[in-house]
Structures are given as C-alpha cells and as structure tokens.
Amino acid sequence: MSANQTSTEVAARAPGKVNLFLSVGAVREDGYHEVATAYQAVSLYEDVYASHASDFAVTFEGKINTDSVPTDGSNLAIKAARLLARKTGYRGGVHLRIEKNVPVAGGMGGGSADAAATLVACDALWGTGLGREELVRLAAKLGADVPFALVGGTALGTGRGERLSPALATGQFTWVFALADQGLSTPAVYAKLDEHREKHALDISPAREVPSVDNDVLQALRAGDTIMLANALHNDMQVAALQMQPGLADVIELGERSGALAGIVSGSGPTVAFLAEDSDAALEIQVSLSANGIRTVRATGPASGARLLTD
Ligand SMILES: C[C@@](CO)(OP(=O)(O)O)[C@H](O)COP(=O)(O)OP(=O)(O)OC[C@H]1O[C@@H](n2ccc(N)nc2=O)[C@H](O)[C@@H]1O
Ligand SMILES: Nc1ncnc2c1ncn2[C@@H]1O[C@H](COP(=O)(O)OP(=O)(O)O)[C@@H](O)[C@H]1O
C-alpha cells in the first residue's frame, strides 16, 4: 500500500426511509415474509468515511446513541465491505467512520443505509468499479431494505422488500419523526405480527398471500397530494409494534391532535412518522411533542439514494 493510498478517504452518504405503505403476507420457506411496500427515502443521512487499511473496522460518531450497535463482523457496514471484497477479489481491508443520523433499531433502515453507503464508498476507494446494478445485487444479499437505500427516492418493494420498481412521484413531503428511547427488533416485530394473526385467527387472505400496495398510494404520489397520501398511509406491522410498545398509541394521538395529517409507525417501529402539511405545521407538531418529553427530528422526502460525497 502506498503512502498516497493510506491518506485517501472516500465519503458516501445514504438515506433513512419511511414505509408509506407496508402490507405483510405469508411467511415463505426461507423464513422471510412476502411484503409489498412503498418506500420513501428521507433527508436523514448516514455518512460513511472509508480509508485504506489491512483489516476491517468500524467506528461511530454523531449524536445518536450507538452503544447497542455491534462493531465486530456482525456490523452491517463491515458485512457490506467484506462482501464487496470477496465478490471483486480485493485483498485489503477498510476502516469505516460512520456519522449516524438515523435512529438505531427505529424502523428507518439506518443499518441498511450504512451498508449501502459502505458499498458505494469501498467501490470507489478500492477502484473495484462495480456498476450500480451489481451493487444493488450485492445489497440484496445484505438485507431486504439495503437495495432501497442504494436506489433512494420513492419506490415500490416486493418479495422480501428487495425487488424494487420506481414509483412515479411528484412533489416533496414534510415529515416529523418521534423517536423512542428503546428500539424494536425487526424479526421480533414480524414474529409478534404472526402471533397476533394466529391468536385472532386472522388467516392470511388470498389477497394478503400476494400483498400489494393500494392504488390510492400510487395516485397520491403521482399527484404529489399530501392530504391524499396522508389518508392512504398504512402499515400492517403497526398493530404488532403497538403491542410491544403500547405508549406509541399516545404518541400517534398527540401528533395527530397537534396538526399532523396522519401518524404511522415507521416500518417495524418504534419511530412514529407524522406527515405534515408544510414546514410551519411540522414545527407545531415538534413543539407539542417536545413539550411532552418526546424527542423529534424533521426531514423531507423523497431524498437521493446512496452516493459519493467526494469525487
Ligand atoms: C420491516 C422493514 C420494512 O421496510 O424495515 P425495518 O423496520 O427493519 O427498517 C423490513 O421489512 C426489514 O428489512 P431489513 O431490516 O433489511 O431486514 P433483514 O435484515 O433482511 O431481515 C431481518 C429479519 O426480519 C425478518 N423479515 C425481514 C423482511 C421480510 N420481508 N420478512 C421478514 O420476516 C426476518 O426474520 C429476517 O431474518
Ligand atoms: N451499521 C449498523 N447500524 C445500525 N444497526 C446495525 C448496524 N449493523 C448491525 N446493526 C444491528 O441491526 C439492528 C437493526 O438496525 P437498524 O437498521 O438501525 O434498524 P431497523 O432495522 O429497525 O431499521 C440493530 O439492532 C443493530 O444491532
């Protein structure tokens, strides 16, 4: 490795997401649920700084508490770097510095964003030159949500959530996110949903077996109509997340009473996403939630997918 290589640092950025619509179907043979979702990337970003090294390591910085995030080989960013190295035959390693802005285990795909930004950063740092399509294929091996963090924007996801097709979307949407003190584990929320459906004999209907995104969502996105979108927001996982953190119901109610057009659990939760009519309305929601001791952050969507911050 040359001295020049040692000093090089490549930066890449990837967004967090909210699921505008999430329909969960049957469990497949591989243990994953068949889903149909509409993702929107939001302007809360993970910035990954990659530099040459002979081994693989990751450190976190920023205001988000990352105590619960592993920094060994089970970290999603390290998995991403190792996968890219294996795939391309690259023989070195990488040191990753991640500035985290997406809440951990919050249902906003922060780990997926770390993996997506790492793929983009390492591909540039190592000069391995994989095309976007190949990176998306690698991303799907890392997690169901990782391809979307690469692609960004607004998109439909089927299969495990990794099969993406673009959604025709206009306009910009303003979101307020209510953050929880304690995260929720994605597999645990899926398991809770299965348990709930079994307990209440909610058979997966034939329609659910092949879940789909409601037409209203697509129409609202095409029109860029915030009120129509607010009415179309839906998340099948919400019932399970509310059972695991019952206090979230009060958070949703408070946000809606404070002017949010709608509040919904983001993905597997526990972050609650409020759709606001505009930035003034968003501020009012934030003031009201924080007066009740709830931490919030504001963002807009759609945001771009994973990209380099340096040339
Ligand atoms: C719920 C969603 C909604 O977008 O997002 P998050 O709330 O995690 O952000 C996703 O389905 C999460 O995607 P992601 O977090 O990438 O999941 P993975 O790492 O691939 O899978 C973790 C575990 O979640 C469960 N899983 C995930 C996706 C899926 N379609 N069915 C599942 O049952 C499986 O138990 C799997 O082992
Ligand atoms: N780079 C990473 N960033 C965040 N979490 C990670 C990372 N690598 C592994 N994890 C683990 O993945 C779990 C889910 O992470 P995260 O993507 O933040 O939430 P969610 O899946 O709810 O969107 C966390 O509990 C964490 O321990």
Automatic annotation (TrEMBL):
Catalytic activity reads: 4-CDP-2-C-methyl-D-erythritol + ATP = 4-CDP-2-C-methyl-D-erythritol 2-phosphate + ADP + H(+)
- Pathway in which this enzyme or protein is active: Isoprenoid biosynthesis; isopentenyl diphosphate biosynthesis via DXP pathway; isopentenyl diphosphate from 1-deoxy-D-xylulose 5-phosphate: step 3/6
Where ATP binds, per the record, is at P103, V104, A105, G106, G107, M108, G109, G110, G111, S112, A113
- Cite the EC number: 2.7.1.148
Q: Which UniProt keywords apply?
A: ATP-binding, Isoprene biosynthesis, Kinase, Nucleotide-binding, Transferase
Q: Name one GO molecular function term.
A: ATP binding
- Enzyme category, top tier: transferase
Tell me yes or no: is Iron-sulfur among this UniProt entry's keywords: no
Start and end residues of each GHMP kinase N-terminal domain: 75-153
Q: Which residues form the active site?
A: K17, D145
GHMP kinase C-terminal domain residues are 218-293
Q: Which GO terms describe its biological process?
A: isopentenyl diphosphate biosynthetic process, methylerythritol 4-phosphate pathway; terpenoid biosynthetic process
Q: Which domain of life is it from?
A: Bacteria
Its family remark reads: Belongs to the GHMP kinase family. IspE subfamily.
Database matches in PANTHER family:
4-DIPHOSPHOCYTIDYL-2-C-METHYL-D-ERYTHRITOL KINASE, CHLOROPLASTIC
**NCBIfam families cross-referenced by the UniProt entry:** ispE (TIGR00154), PRK03188.1 (NF002870)
Q: What does this protein do?
A: Catalyzes the phosphorylation of the position 2 hydroxy group of 4-diphosphocytidyl-2C-methyl-D-erythritol.
The protein's name: 4-diphosphocytidyl-2-C-methyl-D-erythritol kinase
The organism's taxonomy opens as: Bacteria, Bacillati, Actinomycetota, Actinomycetes, Micrococcales
